[in-house]
């Protein structure tokens, strides 16, 4: 397997440090408002990556954090905490805000069919771990205290900039960072902050205060996964300053490499611009659900564009995701109800080729368009061959195994309510008595409930319309 490493700027063969085990940390959501679908692009990418590593036989220890304090507006080092700004706006306290939006995040990740991570740690529950690292940094001369604030000294970590390419000279020349009265160097960033107005506060050796955003991810990743991670992911905006600062802190505290492979999902765009809360050009996940694009279609859309290419969101794209899902679901259904003549020996070469092509594509930095081509090639060829029941079962097993990665094709079996079941039975009865008018009327009634019926030589086949 080869993946593109943001740190080395090339595709590299991936070999975890411990045989068979992958330690992976994903920067998760900041829970201050409804997540938009751009956020979920980064999370779906992490889920597909995790699923592919498992498909390849690796055990994945996956941790995705929940940021519920310390992430300041505009990812800056000064200014208001996103959680507290939201609390002020919604006239709630920041704990309520965090609890409410964390719940929403968990609900959506389940709806989108994510594999369960090993842990979803919350920053506010790991303050002692953060303080311990900051103490270590101060003791080693990488951190310094000014009043009740603690800063990281960038000059003490010469390889600062290795991830983002924001090296000393370019940073100094850029207008991006303002000189700060307390900081020895304008590049320095806060590890612990004192702010009497901040509502979430903890005791620390430097007085009451709250942690900087970057230290949270260093503390939570190392607590659950050890001092050296195999993979760390995020969206491309996390590269700088967030991940650059995580590396500086973690490596200064432990003296060990912090992470071996850094992978970043590029942005989801709307009309060519990054989808972002601050730009106001965003669709929340709830928005798209309400407009008739369900969790499976959203997952399909986000999972099937290459993570290292920017993706433009359009409603046409959402519609075509629904059509593709429908096609896969129909294929999967037919495999359970096959009456053709082609034996296993006829479909086996087609299945073997699809599997080989799928793996070769995913091994090449998750080349999703090639991987999809392998899946649709399988669909086309198997439809053409028209398998007998044993051959169909053989294809179905292979298809389901491949689909453990993208999790888009094996739609859960359709469930019908009692009311719907009665209508389906009534329609079957109407058809046996050749009451076509009643049968058509019942078809329309079922359709209005989102149940489509197809009449086949072996009777009617009901199914739920995909969203
Ligand atoms: P936040 O909730 O702001 O901490 O962001 C959660 C994750 O979403 C981070 O990994 C971001 O990099 C990612 N993200 C934010 N906006 C986008 C976007 N438009 N496209 C892809 N990823 C994004
Ligand atoms: Zn993070």
Largest sheet: 4 strands, parallel
Name the CATH class of the largest domain. Alpha Beta
Question: What's the total number of strands?
Answer: 15
Unreliable stretches covering 5 or more consecutive residues: none
Helix content estimate: 40-55%
Folded structure, characterized:
With 467 residues, the chain is an alpha/beta fold. It folds into three domains: 20-265, HUPs (Rossmann fold), CATH 3.40.50.620; 279-406, Isoleucyl-tRNA Synthetase, Domain 1, CATH 1.10.730.10; 418-464. It is built from 15 helices and 15 strands. It has helices spanning 37-55, 82-90, 94-111, 127-139, 168-173, 213-225, 239-254, 285-290, 295-303, 315-335, 344-363, 368-385, 389-406, 418-432, 436-448; strands at residues 2-5, 10-13, 21-26, 59-64, 143-146, 149-152, 189-193, 210-211, 229-235, 259-265, 268-270, 273-274, 311-312, 451-456, 459-464. Helix 1 links the parallel strand 3 and strand 4. Helix 4 (127-139) packs across helix 6 (213-225). The site of adenosine monophosphate has 18 residues, from helix 1 and strand 9.
Helix-strand blueprint:
Blueprint: E1 2-5, E2 10-13, E3 21-26, H1 37-55, E4 59-64, H2 82-90, H3 94-111, H4 127-139, E5 143-146, E6 149-152, H5 168-173, E7 189-193, E8 210-211, H6 213-225, E9 229-235, H7 239-254, E10 259-265, E11 268-270, E12 273-274, H8 285-290, H9 295-303, E13 311-312, H10 315-335, H11 344-363, H12 368-385, H13 389-406, H14 418-432, H15 436-448, E14 451-456, E15 459-464
Parallel strand pairs: 3-4, 3-9, 9-10, 11-13
Antiparallel strand pairs: 1-2, 5-6, 6-7, 7-8, 11-12, 14-15
Helix pairs in contact: 1-9, 1-13, 2-3, 4-6, 4-7, 6-7, 9-10, 11-12, 11-13, 14-15
